[in-house]
Amino acid sequence: MIGLYLPGRTPLHRAPAGLKLALLALGVGVLLTLDDLRWLTVAGITILGLYAVARVPPRVAAQQLRPLLWFAAFLFVVQTLLTDWLGATALVVRLVLAVALAALVTLTTRVSAMLDVVEVLLGPLRRFGVQPERVGLVLALTIRGVPVVAGVLGTVRDAHRARGVGGPPWRLLVPVLVRVLRQADALSDALIARGVDDEAERRTRR
Amino acid sequence: MIVVDGVSHRLGDQLVLDRVDVALAEQRIGVIGANGSGKSTFARLLNGLVVPDSGTVTVDGLSTAKDGREVRRKVGFVFTDPDAQIVMPTVGEDVAFGLRRSGLPKAEITARVGDMLARHGLPGFDDRPAHALSGGEKQLLALCSLLITAPRTLVCDEPTTLLDLRNARRVGALLAGLPQRLVLVTHDLNALADFERVLLFDAGRLVGDGPPADVVAQYRTAQS
After folding, report:
1. For chain A, what are the domain ranges?
2. In chain B, which residue's Cα lies nearest the Cα of A202?
3. For chain B, what is the domain count?
């Protein structure tokens, strides 16, 4: 999901971010209503077609769904035990297609364009004290933070291995947390240095 | 002109700056000293990241304590770790971040970003994910993201410490060619040869101030 933006000039890349997000919401809504595997197959083929239109390489498309596989398998087993395999299949296919659709929007839309939409959508909440720019910034930092935290995890894991420290993965939790908090502290300084707080202050004063 | 007047500052119980008085008017100023000497805190004073416990810091007459916003527009700050200062997921978006509130048309922002990246060693990097860059490229990106807002002064806190020799040279060359006033905190004493002035800190006090050759020699003697 952090494959982020895949540069391109296809119609999907050029479509306005607001339209894509609205269609995504609509598409996921429709997917949720589909139980019939034949209709889900049609939906799957349509989404595959959209990936082709966006010229997303198959490898990149597969990367978007890989993190979901174990969860989907787990869900399928549980649902088969609780209901039946047909219902379980429909549920898992719905989930995979919804994630694939969301990933397609991510791949064809710059984060900054999404932030513009978020800021417009949250604009009316300004009168209740919500700062849309802040919400947008939080979203951007969240997306930006995923590879940063992954990098920290890799560094800490390497440090453990280099010292011959084994054991369960939860041992990494505290050092990773400490490093991430330090990184957050440094990022906070950087945001101040880049005038982000000043913008908020200026808007508050208006 | 940046004026640091009677500044003392504590971090917890530790006195990290002790009655520092200095006026900076030169274009190239180096800041050196051992780890923990107070040089990074001194650097952070200059754009208001740190407001001193006592004394004042002014930039072109503006107080960092009262006019932080205006001061930060004039003084950009480059951190040691470039990862900590990149805000947006892609290179172009991070550089454009500084212009989001500028009111410029998007096409103009895109053009300026492309031009900035091309001029500073990252041509065509606009759509690349920031996390996939090398350390040197990340530091160049951090510099571009600052320079796009056209600050008059750049304060750089050990910007090459985490970089390999090749990337350190790239960043060093970029800094050397900038028209802005540069305040460079560094352990690379050779990088200061062409500077006009070097400040030496020790235990929070400004103990050396003068041409690079003299102050670097003083530092080497003190460290030996």
Report:
1. 11-109, 127-205
2. B69
3. 1
